[in-house]
TrEMBL record:
Origin superkingdom: Bacteria
Domain HTH lysR-type residues, every copy: 1-58
Cited InterPro entries: LysR_HTH_N (IPR000847), LysR_subst-bd (IPR005119), WH-like_DNA-bd_sf (IPR036388), WH_DNA-bd_sf (IPR036390)
Pfam families (alphabetical): HTH_1 (PF00126), LysR_substrate (PF03466)
UniProt record similarity statement: Belongs to the LysR transcriptional regulatory family.
Keyword terms: DNA-binding, Transcription, Transcription regulation
Organism the protein comes from: Sulfitobacter porphyrae
Presence of keyword Nucleotidyltransferase: no
Signal sequence extent: none
Name under which the protein is recorded: LysR family transcriptional regulator
Length: 295
């Protein structure tokens, strides 16, 4: 029994097809099939039923797979430990952070990291929508900080980090024109809802908090969104920490929309399970874990 055989079995089960496993492991479909056959022959067990389009675990396969997952997890942890033991301070730490996160939360730990690891270059990118997780899974970020929307949880470790509230707002003049109380959807459908585009690619767009049947204008980031809303050209949801001053001076006002109450958005730190973090990334992860322990 070999490590690569267990990886192939896990990939078939996780993706549901031999083709999906081949793409995940960057191998040919025939190589994956051969590897699974080899494993079954060595074990003298049929692990996968091939009677349908999608291979499924047999009764024996389900028992074996549970133990295989445990072994693979231990192997990943062992490889990560070995990598940490031989690691030196990494030249660069790449963070992909959701634009909904208050950056003030991270600045103290980033300052400490800068003092403790002066040779490491910090690369911080602020991303929209699915941008942080896309960077993480593509290997362009060491740590992502975002919501768990669309996250392949079997491939990443997560730690809770913050809670952000996002509420619908309009400028003072528009809010006064709309009037007090809860606004029916029909009233707002004629007014553009300002939304932000994602940074994960051309297909990444806002999918939550969308008013059905409404006109929409799309902007690139929250700074542009706030400016458009302040101008009175539309309304939209904004994180509390980005509009605190405008709410205080009255230039922006919360509006109550039928079916669109303020949303509580949970933010998590994430890293890939198979990663081999260096001392700087580990120091950041320890801070996140310690902070979580005190919440």
């Amino acid at each position: 029994m070999k490590h690569h055989q267990l990886l192939a079995l896990d990939a078939v089960v996780a993706t549901g097809t031999f083709r999906g496993a081949a793409e995940r492991l960057n191998k040919s479909q025939s190589a994956i099939s051969h590897t699974i056959r080899q494993l079954e022959d060595e074990l003298e067990l049929k692990l996968l039923s091939r009677d349908t389009y999608r291979p499924t675990l047999t009764a024996e396969g389900r028992v074996f797979y549970r133990e295989a997952i445990r072994v693979l997890t231990e192997m990943r942890e062992l490889n990560a430990t070995a990598a940490r033991l031989r690691a030196h301070e990494e030249p660069e730490l790449r963070l992909a952070v959701s634009a909904t996160l208050p950056l003030d939360l991270l600045l103290p730990v980033l300052a400490d990291l800068g003092k403790s690891f002066p040779a490491t270059h910090l690369r911080l990118s602020t991303e929209m929508m699915g941008g942080p997780i896309a960077r993480l899974m593509e290997g362009r970020a060491d740590v992502a900080i975002a919501t768990l929307d669309g996250v392949p949880l079997e491939e990443v470790e997560t730690r809770p980090l913050a809670v952000v509230h996002i509420r619908p707002v309009a400028c003072r003049a528009l809010a006064e024109r709309l009037g007090p109380g809860t606004l029916p959807l029909s009233v707002l459908q004629a007014i553009p809802q300002i939304v932000v585009s994602g940074t994960a690619g051309p297909d990444d767009s806002q999918s939550r908090d969308l008013l059905p049947g409404a006109r929409r204008w799309t902007v690139s980031d929250f700074a542009a969104k706030k400016q458009v809303i302040l101008s009175g050209l539309g309304w939209g949801g904004m994180p509390d920490h980005l509009i605190r001053q405008e709410i205080a001076d009255g230039s922006l006002r919360p509006i109550a929309v039928d079916g669109f109450s303020p949303r509580r958005s949970e933010i998590f730190a994430m890293r890939r399970r198979e990663s081999s973090p260096g001392p700087v990334a580990n120091a950041l992860w320890k801070w996140v874990s310690d902070r979580n322990a005190t919440l």
